[in-house]
Amino acid sequence: MASSTGASRQYHSTLAVVARLAPYLWREQGFALRVRIFMALALLLGAKAATLFVPVFYKQAVDALGPRDVAIALPVGIILAYGATRILSSTMQELRTMVFDPVAQHGVHRLALETFRHLHRLSLRFHLDRQTGGLSRAIERGINAVENLVYYLVFQVAPTLLEILLVSLVLWWLYDWRFAATTFLTISAYTAWTLAVTQWRLVYRRRMLEAESEANAKAVDSLLNYETVKYFGNEAHEARRFDASLTAYERAAVWSANTLSILNIGQAAIIAVGVTLVMLLAAAGVARGEMTVGDFVMVNAYLIQLYLPLNFLGMMYRELRQALTDLGQMFRLLGVEVEVRDAPGAGPLAPGGGEVVFDDVRFGYDERREILRGVSLRVPAGRTLAIVGPSGAGKSTIARLMFRFYDVVGGAIRVDGQDLREVTQDSLRAAIGIVPQDTVLFNDTVYYNIAYGRPSATPAEVEEAARLARIHDFVASLPDGYQTRVGERGLKLSGGERQRVAIARTILKRPRVLIFDEATSALDTRTERAIQESLRQISRDVTTLTIAHRLSTVVDADEILVLQDGMVAERGDHAALLARGGTYARMWAQQAEAREDGPHG
Ligand SMILES: Nc1ncnc2c1ncn2[C@@H]1O[C@H](COP(=O)(O)OP(=O)(O)OP(=O)(O)O)[C@@H](O)[C@H]1O
Ligand SMILES: [Mg+2]
């Protein structure tokens, strides 16, 4: 996906990401959680100090058992101290994790919630451009990234650096600088090798991840379109597309594994050389009588203890890099400018009858193509305006603009005399209800979907809305009644049933302005008439905008507006438009002909 590759522009430096993350781990935490941070740091230092003493007791035990001719007293105390230090060291490490975990998890929680809220704030334009799967994956990865980043940075990288420093100092202090220098050089070489090779490997890993998410996206898209795939018998075509992504993944995965082996070989060699050199130094010391066998063992123990965690250095580095990229991605999402925002000091929409005015509105989704080219209309409070016109004329666009999904490019839209841009979006949207052209339902029960219009509604009110939308009898006849699940996007219901659920939930909302965008297009004429009757009752005092292709549904409107090429071509009531003999009259004649010929009569 091109969108995800070009994503890591911002937040390129570790510092930028960490600085952006820090508030979630500190400022947003309560006092108790902050105390935990200090406790965790204390435990961290304690654990490292204990670790430093383990080889010392080991050496003393070896020296106490050294080659003597006579029987020796068991160095019980030393061995017990050795055991105790080991226990202490690992217990403190685990305690530290236990103490710190709530802090990290709380940070994760806050960050994920904020991102989710932000995604809902972003405009429809943003969401139409994105793949939803990609967005939820970005959150998921971002959450993982926080955990990884904190864990590796605070509990792995920092302590390891500290330990390297301490051990080098101890070796220097106890023996001579050559031990410290050799150890230090070995670790430097090791680190340099690891970082260089890991950096090189990142290319393959990135390729692998990209191929993976591409394969994923294709699979999801293909399965979402299951019916379409079958209609066109394109299973083989879909499999080929998926196969191409899988092949890319396979190749990248093999290379990723190969390069890991190369990394491991180099690491092992460097450590072996380093340990051998230090052992040689120590052995020479023992031979000269300057060091005991215990010293020899202790040096070895220190090195092993030191190098062991380094084995994970490559992984740490990679995970850190990955975490930084993922977090950067998530922060980038958080940083996406909200296109439609409340004006500073915007107040709620003042109460009113619901008068709607479009004043020379110009709009285009893309500045290169204007969809509405100066549309003016006025629906007095409580009246009904119908909009008809050819497909693609911009009818649904008018509905979207009413909800302020987009801001107009020119002109203004006013509800009860207030410009949409000067009131809060929440209050505006609360005042308008829509039955959209394509109704998508939540994958939950019928009840949930209707009640969504006003979650505080009582079951009786939900049922009443269902009755008005002529869906109650159908729902009641279902084995599970209102508890029937509607399936993903509501696809287990027929198109007409879905539309009626959408009508019911909008009725339940009781808005000031109602918009019906082809709300009854999927219904048979009889059901449509029945619903029209209920809608007339409901919308008696409610301003209504009806969009329809079937002109028979709009004959009663107070005003009918013919939209063509982004402009109002004709306006007037049914009789006036017929008398005019223009586009509307022509459309009416055509549809009347169809009505007479058609089976429905
Ligand atoms: N998100 C979008 N981005 C770019 N162009 C869009 C977008 N949505 C709609 N359009 C374009 O805007 C034009 C008007 O679309 P609109 O949905 O308002 O038409 P409509 O009058 O409702 O048509 P129909 O009767 O088929 O529903 C169409 O040409 C469409 O391709
Ligand atoms: Mg439309």
What is the structure about, briefly put?
This protein is of the alpha/beta class. Helix content is 63%, strand content 9%.
Descriptive overview:
It is elongated and about 120 Å long. The longest helix has 53 residues, at 235-287. Helix 19 crosses helix 20. The chain starts with a helix and ends with a helix. The chain has 3 domains: 13-174 and 320-338, Up-down Bundle (ABC transporter transmembrane region fold); 176-290; 356-438 and 510-597, P-loop containing nucleotide triphosphate hydrolases (Rossmann fold, 3-Layer(aba) Sandwich), CATH 3.40.50.300. It contains 20 helices and 10 strands. The strands form 2 sheets. Strands 6-7-8-3-9-10 form a 6-stranded mixed beta sheet, with helices on both faces. A 4-stranded antiparallel beta sheet has the order 2-1-4-5, covered by helices on one side. It is α/β, with parallel strands linked by helices. It binds adenosine-5'-triphosphate and magnesium ion (MG). Residues 128, 365-366, 371, 391-397, 437 line the site of adenosine-5'-triphosphate.
